[in-house]
């Protein structure tokens, strides 16, 4: 998969592409990341990419010319052009799974007050990462790229994301590693028992417990299996 990031601040992505799983995915040639500086497309004699809004008001608006020319120079027939804005559809794990199937994603990052409305005619979808406002789309685009890249085949093992929070509609169960006891806190016996079915049931139960506590709306909207109903009843009698 190729991900192109269109931005006015390419230097923000250096650490992102040079670290950990993302770096490995690039070295393994599973992922290609292209960072495109939209300012290099400006035809303005003072290199401007933004201007005052018609009608007045605070802030600057990104101009059509450099942004649209950058999109046109980056896209092919296989590209999905995604505009990063707080007005977009909210990123969810299910959206990341869909994006992970694409050949080429272009993440368009705005800054300042936003994009000239006409730029939206060159965009396939608008994406937000949540209901709060950032200074620009760059950090949001890294969130999108990170969550998509880890789902692309070969980047991490399949099992490590099948158990992710949200992948099965629940929050992930708790994890433990050595030592067996730390400052009086012990690893639950079932996890060292070697009994695979008991471990599976324990993890499902703790997933349900955590989800009910932190995100009860995920339980309310869920089609519970008979086992999940039984485990939730146990949890409620324990608490
Ligand atoms: Cl994609 N951009 C900005 N500027 N703020 C955001 C966002 C995006 N998603 C949430 N807040």
From TrEMBL:
Report domain tRNA methyltransferase TRMD/TRM10-type positions.
1-220
Q: Does this UniProt record's set of keywords contain Transferase?
A: yes
Q: Which residues form a coiled coil?
A: none
Mention one GO molecular function: tRNA (guanine(37)-N1)-methyltransferase activity
**InterPro entries associated with the record:** Alpha/beta_knot_MTases, tRNA_m1G_MeTrfase_C_sf, tRNA_m1G_MeTrfase_TrmD, tRNA_m1G_MTases_N, tRNA_MeTrfase_TRMD/TRM10
- Pfam families given in the database record: tRNA_m1G_MT
User: Might you name a Gene Ontology BP term for this protein?
Assistant: tRNA N1-guanine methylation
The principal localisation class reads: cytoplasm
**Binding site residues for S-adenosyl-L-methionine:** 110, 129-134
EC number(s) per entry: 2.1.1.228
What residues form the membrane-spanning segments? none
Write out the catalysed reaction. Answer: guanosine(37) in tRNA + S-adenosyl-L-methionine = N(1)-methylguanosine(37) in tRNA + S-adenosyl-L-homocysteine + H(+)
> Which first-to-last residue range defines the signal peptide?
none
Question: GO cellular component annotations, sorted alphabetically?
Answer: cytosol
Which NCBIfam families does this UniProt record tie to the protein? PRK00026.1, trmD
Described function: Specifically methylates guanosine-37 in various tRNAs.
Q: Which PANTHER family match?
A: TRNA (GUANINE-N(1)-)-METHYLTRANSFERASE
Output the HAMAP family linked to this UniProt entry: TrmD
Complex formation: Homodimer.
Q: What is this protein called?
A: tRNA (guanine-N(1)-)-methyltransferase
This protein's species is Erysipelothrix inopinata
